[in-house]
């Protein structure tokens, strides 16, 4: 099980085509500290119909988009 499962579930439950979350929100929702290892998990949302579109270090946020099939 992924350490980011709670985050992926949150993204899916929001049911939005595009969802932008701050790093702080990601940590709060996921229940763990966001660090460089997130990059190893960023393909996991594909299993839930979403992808990580952009990670902004400047704005400290992550954009998720719903995949169209």
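Q: What amino acid sequence fits the structure above?
A:
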């Amino acid at each position: 099980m992924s350490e980011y499962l709670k985050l992926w579930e949150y993204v899916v439950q929001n049911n939005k085509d595009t969802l932008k979350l701050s790093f702080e929100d990601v940590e709060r929702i996921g229940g763990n500290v966001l660090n460089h290892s997130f990059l190893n998990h960023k393909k996991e949302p594909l299993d839930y119909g979403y992808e990580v579109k952009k990670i902004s270090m400047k704005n400290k946020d992550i954009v998720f988009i719903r995949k169209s099939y």
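Q: And what stands out in the fold?
A: The longest strand covers residues 50-56.
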